[in-house]
Each structure stands twice: as C-alpha cells, then as structure tokens.
Amino acid sequence: MAGISGEVLRGESSAKLQSALSELEVPRMSFESAMHGAGASLANMAQELLKKFQTPVKPENSSSISTLPKLDLFSRQTFDFSPSPRVEPFFFPEAKPFQFTPSRSALQFKDSRNPNMAMGNPSNATDNPVMSNNYLVVRDQYVLSYNNDKKTPNWVSWQLNEDWLGSQKRTGTFIPDDSLPSGFNRAQHSDYSRSGYDRGHNTPSADRTASREDNEATFIMTNIAPQAPDNNQGPWEKLESYSREMARQGKELYIISGADGSKGTIGNGVNVPESWWKVIVILPQKGQGVTDVKANTEVIAVEMPNENGMKNDDWRKYVTTVHAIERHTGYDLLSELPDDIEHKVSSTKFPK
C-alpha cells in the first residue's frame, strides 16, 4: 500500500466522485421524466373529455339524438336563453300614475290631465267603494264626487268650449247610474215625481250637444239633484246661457258646480239641498289651461238659495267669492293653481 503513487489515489478518487455524481443525477432525471409523463397524461385526459362532450349521446328508450354544444376553451361562447315558443312569460304590471287621454281627438290641451277636472279634485274623491260618500265618477263628459247617503253629487266638474257645442237635441231620458258599485244607493227618475222639485242638472244638457252620447250622459242621475223650479229656470239657467255665450266666442271655461246643506228628502231618500253653487274659470282662448290662469283671470262664483220666487232675478245678484263657498263646503275648489294665484282669484268677486 505504501507503494501506491499519489496519481493512482487521485485517479481512484476522481472515479468515485464521478460515480457519486451519477447517482445524484438519477433522481433529478426521473422527476423530469415523471413530470413529462404526467403532462402527457393530463393532455390525453383533456382530449378524452372533449371527445366525450362532442360525441352524440343516444338516450335510453329514445330514438332521438341530442348533441351538446361543442366546447371551445379559448373563445367566449354565445348561448340563446330565449324562452321556448310554448312558454308565455308573465310580467307583473308596472304601477303608473293615472294619466287621462281625452277621447275627443278634436280637443287639444297643454297637458294630459283630465280637462274636465283641470282645476283639481275639490274633495280628493277616489274610486274606492269604501269612500261611498266621496266616490269619484269619471266620464268623458264630466267628473263628479258622488254622495251615497244623499243620492246626489257633492260636486261636478267639466270643461266647456265651442267644441262641446253642436246641433244635438235634448234627449231628455233620465236614467239611474249603473256604473256605481254594487250595493250603492241609486236615485231613480221616479224619486222626483210630484216632489215639487226639478231634476236639476249640474253639467247642463245644453253644454253637451256635440253628440247624442254626450247629451245622454248629462241625464244620468248622478249628475242630478233636486232644484227649485224658479232657481233652475231663472238665474241658474241665465248663468248657464252666459257660459255658453263665452264658449262660442272662442273662450275656454272650467266649471265646478254643486249643492250644499239639506232641506229634507224626496222620493226614496234623495237629499234636497239648501243652496246651489257654481265656480267658472274663464280663459281668453280655447285650449288654455291651468298654467294660463293669472292673478287677474276672471273667476265667477255664485251661490243661490234653492227656493222659488227668484225666477226673474239676474244671476249677478248672487255673486260671491270662491273662498266663501269653500268655507262652508270644506272643498279646495282650485287646488291645481299656484297658491298665490289661487288666493288672488278666490278672494275676488267677478264680474267687478
């Protein structure tokens, strides 16, 4: 051993070192090979999955063939989610505020509110049957608040211009209002027979002569209340005629009429009012509305006793203010007007 040279020792050490290094490289190469093999296996699995999804499938006990959509992993797919033609989708109705569209195409207005109630809803009437003594009735010819206990209207509101006036004759057939909810009290034509009172119109027959339908609507009993003949055929009728004269001159009128108080009943419980009142907003041109009312706009307000002995009186004898009528009726008669303008026209007597 002592005779072995240093070169031999160095050679043997080098060989051992190389052998040791070779043993160390085996695991590293095996790991790389394993990773390569695993990657190949994953790729093969992906391909197999794609083949399965793309292969037509025949359901059991069925002769029909259905095919899944071809999958594209590298682009965005577009799918049609529209319902089957046999499926009717249901949509809950969207709640919208009430909006009135006039049925008379010849009439033009600055807004879509009901022109017959352009100046407001004096008593905040609704069409809820629970509110039976302030029940809202809406027609093309007028709007009213009905009082079920009195069997008469609280108030009636309508628009008047020359388009509402024509050649239709008075139809004259009074009929009960079948549009009222079931269980409501309905005044009958016979309730007035031999009572001593006229069947007094709020919206006059002569204000609705453009068509037979318009005129017939004024004879529905919810537009009617007991009226003393001398009142109805005297100053009340004269004011109605004056209003139509203004309309024929091309002016726009908004009218609210009603009766107040009680003098007892006639027929089957129809209330006889103590007085009749009316408010008339007169605008210079047809088609004008709320926004055209100014502080100096003429607004006629009258209140007449519901009695005889006044047939020859001038209607101007009974001029009052809107505020005076509001105080004892409790109504807000021109609620759509700006407060300052409403106060001015409601506190002024017209004609001056």
The total of helices stands at: 6
Strand content: 15-25%
Reading off the top of the CATH hierarchy, the class of the domain at 118-346 is best stated as Alpha Beta
Radius of gyration: 45 Å
Arithmetic mean of pLDDT: 81
How many E-type strands?
Answer: 10
Order of helices and strands: HEEEEHEHHEEEEEHH
Predict the CATH topology of the domain at 118-346.
Answer: Extracellular Endonuclease, Chain A
Q: Would you identify the CATH H-level superfamily of the domain at 118-346?
A: Extracellular Endonuclease, subunit A
Q: Structural class, from helix and strand content?
A: alpha+beta
**Proportion in helices:** 25-40%
Strand order of the largest sheet: 1-2-3-6-9-10
Could you name the ranges where pLDDT drops below 50 across 5 or more consecutive residues?
1-10, 24-31, 57-82, 86-112
Write structural notes for this entry:
With 352 residues, this protein is α+β, with helices and mostly antiparallel strands. It has a domain at 118-346: 3-Layer(aba) Sandwich (Extracellular Endonuclease, Chain A). 25% of the residues lie in helices and 16% in strands. The chain contains six helices and ten strands, in the order αββββαβααβββββαα. The chain has helices at 6-54, 212-217, 229-232, 235-248, 322-329, 339-346, and strands at residues 135-138, 143-147, 152-160, 198-201, 224-227, 252-260, 265-266, 270-271, 275-283, 298-305. Strands 1-2-3-6-9-10 form a six-stranded antiparallel β-sheet, with helices on both faces. A two-stranded antiparallel ribbon has the order 4-5. Strands 7-8 form a two-stranded antiparallel sheet. Strand 2 (143-147) and strand 3 form a beta hairpin. The longest helix is centred in the first third of the chain and has 49 residues, at 6-54. 29% of the residues are buried.
